[in-house]
């Protein structure tokens, strides 16, 4: 009898618990918290200034008559550069891409004398440099790491001179068109101002010039440069 009463009591309590649980409201679904939006720090236009150093390298190869080598020289000139920048960025999540143009004065000149059959002076000068480039990189908050490349245009003044004959000059003075590639890092130091450091390799191609006086003498000038510079940009 005691066992029967105990069984009845346990069964009654169990049924009561099940009924109570059935009467409880269903658990409300937990809504996932949205991921924090990435702030579009980098999107928009900007202007700036930049300055730094230029290592300008020129190769001069001169041939005579049938194409036989007459002499050659490699000149390396180091100088400064300063100029302005304008650009526009677009941003998608952490990916930043844009267009940038700059124009810089350059002061890099070198003269070298060789002595093949007689004394010869080689002179090369990079006077200015402008680029129009695409940029792309990854933003880590207020810091952007980027690569860049595009068109390069420069003003060069190359000459091959026979000093014992004042009129014997082969000159290449004018605008040269080439390409550039490089990369750098940029960082916000305030809400609208960034600082950057970048390195560019510039190739302005090769130019062949015939002597205007003595037939058969031909000089080939190849110009390239490495540009390292710092800049400050104002974004709006």
* Total number of beta strands: 8
Q: What is the CATH C level class, in words?
A: Mainly Beta
Mean pLDDT: 85
Q: In whole angstroms, how far apart are the ends?
A: 90 Å
Strand content: over 45%
Whole-angstrom Rg:
35 Å
CATH architecture: Beta Barrel
What's this model, at a glance?
The protein has one helix at about 1-25, and strands spanning about 45-65, 70-90, 95-115, 120-140, 145-160, 170-190, 195-210, 215-235. The protein is mainly beta. Strands 1-2-3-4-5-6-7-8 form an 8-stranded antiparallel beta barrel.
What does this structure look like?
- The protein has an eight-stranded antiparallel beta barrel.
- It has one helix spanning 2-23; strands at 44-64, 68-92, 95-114, 120-140, 143-161, 169-188, 193-210, 217-235.
- By secondary structure, the protein is mostly beta strands.
- The N and C termini lie far apart (90 Å).
- It contains one helix and eight strands; from the N terminus they run H-E-E-E-E-E-E-E-E.
- The chain has a single domain, classed as Porin (Beta Barrel), CATH 2.40.160.
- It is 9% helix and 69% strand.
């Amino acid at each position: 009898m005691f066992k029967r009463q105990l069984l009845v009591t346990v069964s009654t309590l169990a049924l009561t618990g099940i009924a109570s649980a059935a009467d409880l409201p269903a658990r409300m679904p937990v809504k996932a918290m949205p991921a924090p939006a990435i702030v579009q720090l980098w999107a928009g236009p900007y202007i700036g200034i930049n300055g730094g150093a230029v290592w300008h390298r020129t190769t001069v190869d001169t041939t005579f008559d049938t194409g036989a080598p007459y002499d050659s020289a490699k000149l390396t000139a180091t100088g400064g550069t300063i100029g302005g920048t304008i650009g526009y960025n677009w941003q998608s999540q952490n990916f930043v891409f844009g267009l940038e143009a700059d124009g810089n004065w350059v002061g890099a000149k070198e003269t070298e004398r060789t002595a093949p059959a007689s004394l010869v002076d080689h002179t090369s000068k990079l006077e200015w440099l402008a680029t129009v480039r695409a940029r792309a990189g990854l933003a880590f908050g207020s810091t952007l790491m980027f690569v860049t490349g595009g068109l390069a245009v420069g003003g060069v003044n190359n000459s091959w001179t026979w000093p014992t004959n004042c009129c014997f000059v082969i000159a290449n003075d004018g605008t040269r068109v080439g390409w550039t590639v490089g990369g750098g890092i940029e960082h916000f130091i305030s809400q609208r101002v960034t600082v950057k450091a970048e390195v560019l390799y510039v190739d302005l191609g090769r130019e062949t010039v015939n002597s205007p006086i003595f037939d058969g003498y031909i000089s080939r000038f190849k110009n390239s440069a490495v540009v390292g510079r710092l800049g400050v940009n104002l974004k709006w």
